[in-house]
# Entry
Amino acid sequence: MNKSRTLSSRQRATMITLDRTILGFLRQWLLIINLLWAVFVITPWLAPVFMKMGNEGLARAIYVACRTQCHQLPQRSFFLFGAQASYSLPEIHTTWQDTNNPYLLRQFIGNPQMGWKVAWSDRMVSMYTSIFLAGLVFALVRKRLRPLPF
# Structure
């Protein structure tokens, strides 16, 4: 059975709007992905900023959300607003529990003297930031690249 169906004017307008939205995304996909990735990469750096500003609730929400991607061990993390950019495990033990238990160590987010821990470890910062930078470089050079032959 070949039944042709005509669209109402409302359905037609909806389809045109949907087509334009998809086409707009396809034209700007790299910009959209790079902007979303920028938010993803910047968010862990906002946790220590919010701690410094006194907004502990928002900072802790970021720490919890980033826990799904990272172990957040303090001896492998960057610190902002403190004496050093990073600390060894013995240095952390001077102000936090003397333990090697990773589940307890990850709870240490810093203090006003040492600064506040970035919500990702140094490895996650390097990995995710390099992906973001690669997206920016691709945005700059993609017009000069030839498409693959297939």
